[in-house]
Design goal:
Order of helices and strands: EEEHHHHHEHHHHHEEHH
Number of strands: 6
Oligomer: single chain
Number of domains: 2
Shape: elongated
Structural class: mainly alpha
Largest sheet: 2 strands, parallel
Strand order of the largest sheet: 1-4
Length: about 325
């Protein structure tokens, strides 16, 4: 039998004690915003932008706050946890408890960029083309953070690279949870609950070995999503942006289409934590609308093509 690795990575990059510190999830967001800024400014300096380089900082900040953070949080509440929000609306502000939606973040950025384009009288598709390239890289960082956190894990499998994720125990039968707590009694000086046991996994080889037999080998679907939705999409969009003469809006459309397809593919390996809508997982269902938006951008780009300055000046 294969000795599958039990996930025991620490979610804190730096911890100051008492559950307080800098989490890798936060580092991923900072890295995503920084990457978006430098990529966008580089493309603006090369003539692939409808806004000048000195406006990029303010634009990316607005996208980060009003698009990604607010949109991502609102999307999670509406798409995945509306019942809890209805019972306690203040849950929206408790972002430290987790809960962000990639689909919500994409929608939030789309709405913000539409407003920005109207406010500053610039081409909306041209405004988004550079942004989605950085967004793909941001998704890559975010999925890696999901992996470090041991969340959004995959379906059971017996492939050689499968892993065991301790957070699975939160969804395990009550009998299994009681067995884990009973086995852990000798390792803790006082009675503890499942959260305390799982929180000690990153720093304790003994606890890691203890819970291993109660866990199921699963696909590391976070890695699949990081490579498909993030890195692969970023490389393809970057090459098209700087190597191929295409009108404004095509890159944005390809991002939406590419994200919908790669997300749907990755969902076939990911544990359906949010349930199903018919035969589709919630992620696949929402991706249908993202796909339609992408097709709309592609059709609009071909209807009245407008090209970036970098290409028009070369003619």
């Amino acid at each position: 039998m294969i000795a599958y690795w039990v996930h025991n990575l620490d979610p804190f990059a730096v911890q100051f004690g008492g559950g307080f510190g800098i989490r890798w999830y936060g580092v991923a967001y900072v890295a995503a915003f920084a990457a978006a800024f430098f990529l966008y400014r580089n493309l603006a300096q090369r003539g692939f932008s409808v806004i000048p380089p000195d406006k990029v900082g303010d634009f990316i900040t607005g996208c980060a706050v009003f698009g990604v953070l607010i949109g991502g949080r609102l999307g999670y509440i509406l798409f995945y946890d509306f019942g809890a929000f209805a019972r306690d609306p203040l849950i929206f502000f408790r972002v430290w408890e987790g809960g962000m939606s990639a689909h919500g973040g994409i929608l939030g950025v789309a709405v913000y960029t539409l407003w920005y384009a109207w406010r500053h009288r610039v081409n909306w598709p041209g405004l988004g083309d550079n942004l989605v390239i950085g967004a793909a890289l941001g998704i890559f960082f975010g999925r890696l953070a999901n992996f470090v956190n041991g969340e959004l894990y995959g379906r059971p499998t017996e492939v050689a690279w499968a892993m065991k994720f301790p957070n699975e125990l939160y969804e395990a039968p009550v009998e299994t949870q009681h067995k884990v707590l009973a086995a852990a009694e000798e390792m803790f000086p006082a009675p503890v609950g499942l959260p305390e046991v799982l929180a000690s996994v990153p720093g304790s080889a003994e606890v890691t070995l203890l819970i291993g037999p109660f866990l199921t080998p699963r696909h590391p679907s976070q890695i699949y999503e990081a490579l498909l939705e993030g890195l692969l999409l970023f490389v393809l969009l970057w090459i098209l942006r700087i190597k191929v003469r295409i009108p404004n809006g095509v890159i944005t459309g390809l991002f939406f289409v590419g994200y919908a397809l790669t997300r749907s593919l990755a969902e076939s390996f990911r544990f359906p934590d949010a349930g199903y809508v018919g035969l589709l997982t919630k992620g696949q269902f929402l991706s249908v609308f993202v796909l339609l938006v992408g097709v709309g951008f592609l059709l609009a780009a071909g209807w009245r093509p407008v090209y970036p300055k970098a290409w028009t000046e070369r003619r």
